[in-house]
Specification:
Number of helices of chain B: 8
Shape of chain A: elongated
CATH architecture of chain B: 3-Layer(aba) Sandwich
CATH class of one domain in chain A: Alpha Beta
Strand content of chain A: 25-35%
Number of strands of chain B: 8
Helix content of chain B: 25-40%
Largest interface: A-B, 27 and 25 residues
Radius of gyration of chain B: 19 Å
CATH topology of chain B: Rossmann fold
Strand content of chain B: 15-25%
Radius of gyration of chain A: 18 Å
Strand order of the largest sheet of chain B: 4-3-5-2-6-7-8
CATH architecture of one domain in chain A: 2-Layer Sandwich
Number of domains of chain B: 1
Strand order of the largest sheet of chain A: 2-1-6
Distance between the termini of chain B: 49 Å
Order of helices and strands of chain A: HEHEEEHEE
Structural class of chain A: alpha+beta
Order of helices and strands of chain B: EHEHEHEHEEHHEHEH
Oligomer: heterodimer
Largest sheet of chain A: 3 strands, mixed
Helix content of chain A: 25-40%
Distance between the termini of chain A: 31 Å
Number of strands of chain A: 6
CATH class of chain B: Alpha Beta
Chain lengths: 114, 256
């Protein structure tokens, strides 16, 4: 359910891009998905495949997913670390004053179209 | 075939819709409050209490559910305007759906539910918001006008995950966490706590039956969102409601 909702938003954003750039067909869509974005990539691909054949501008398109690693910043010792491996607590100084700086994105990087 | 670099959020179109709806709400002086929680946390019960307590404030409720209209009926029974939105299986409301529900709320309410204002001076918006639906002729004391609201609650789909990811265009985001759900929820659903302006801990009348540590819950929630306002309430016995209501009224004043 959640992934289908994202596909619908993606399609709407692509429709607007197509209109602005006078595109008639989209060939490839490259998305960057953060490691902790909560998006299940296999379910997302299934939802995309289901949707695209029903949406003329996307019917011949392919979807390429790139994973963005999750990185957390520690405010106490000013260091970066891998979020998935260590979680909220900084592995260097054990502070909890940490913030995710990358990894929750779902970004359209580029499209190929005509 | 050409390559276009976008680097745009997948939900960029939603973010634009949300900003447009917020601007529209501000222009008509209506504070839209997005109410989020898991199913059964007490959203409808809390809203029912607020409708009864906030006498003199014109309130409407948009009830978003996957199915049924039981919540909308509960709200209407209290005399407030309500509209049921079915999300067609979707687990959240987005800004486009919210704007459509707002249009519906403004346009299709029967005249019997419209608010009667004695004179144009009482219209809260100088641009003549509150367009007459019926001329003054047949109605004693002036024309029926399209309903205007001071406060609209959007009761989002019961879900602690997806609604946090979509900006609905609301001016204020509230989340509810009920005592029986447990004080560990900030650890499990961090985004919801980060995106909310206030956390309302509901069903505090049941605190003695559950191992719910209010101070632990507050510390966990504030670690995620230092600016989060926290209101422990019982909509059943009224405990804590006054503080929440005072704060809501302040938010309405600030939004205008």
């Amino acid at each position: 359910m959640h992934e289908m909702g994202i596909v619908l938003h993606l399609a709407k954003t692509l429709d607007e891009t197509a209109e602005e750039n006078k595109l008639s067909s989209i060939g490839k869509v490259v998305l960057q998905i953060g490691e902790v974005s909560g998006i299940m990539t296999d379910l997302f691909t299934d939802a995309w495949d289901y949707f695209k054949v029903r949406h003329p501008i996307l019917k011949d398109s392919t979807l390429e997913l790139e994973t963005l690693p999750a990185v957390t910043w520690c405010d106490s010792c000013k260091s970066k670390y891998e979020t998935v491996k260590y979680g909220r607590e900084c592995p260097y100084c054990h502070s909890g004053e940490t913030w995710l700086i990358q990894g929750d994105e779902c970004v359209i990087k580029e499209i190929e179209a005509e | 075939m050409k390559t276009i670099t976008l680097n745009a959020s997948v939900t960029a179109s939603n973010e634009r819709d949300a900003d447009a709806l917020r601007a529209r709400m501000r222009a008509c002086g209506t504070l839209l409050v997005n109410v989020m929680s898991s199913p059964g946390a007490g959203k409808t019960t809390l809203l029912s209490r607020l409708i009864r307590d906030l006498d003199g404030i014109r309130i409407a409720v948009m009830e978003a559910d996957i199915e049924s209209d039981v919540d909308a009926k509960r709200i209407e029974a209290l005399g407030a305007s309500s509209i049921q939105v079915h999300t067609s299986g979707m687990c959240h409301m987005d800004a486009g759906m919210t704007a459509a529900a707002f249009d519906e709320l403004q346009q299709t309410l029967p005249c019997s539910q419209a608010i009667q204002l004695p004179s144009a001076q009482n219209l809260p918006c100088s641009q003549g918001r509150g367009t007459a639906l019926k001329g003054g002729g047949g109605v004693k004391g002036g024309g029926w006008v399209r309903p205007d609201f001071d406060l609209i609650f959007l009761e989002n789909v019961g879900n602690l995950i997806c609604p946090a990811e979509y900006d609905t265009g609301a001016g204020l985001n509230l989340m509810l966490l009920s005592v029986p759900e447990g004080d560990d929820k900030p650890l499990k659903y961090p985004l919801m706590f980060q995106k909310s302006d206030a956390l309302i801990v509901t069903k505090t009348d049941t605190l003695r039956y559950f191992n719910f540590d209010l101070s632990k819950c507050e510390a966990r929630a504030r670690a995620l969102n230092p600016n989060l306002k926290i209101f422990p309430v019982s909509a059943k016995n009224g405990e804590g409601m006054d503080k929440l209501e005072t704060w809501l009224k302040q938010q309405m004043d600030e939004f205008r």
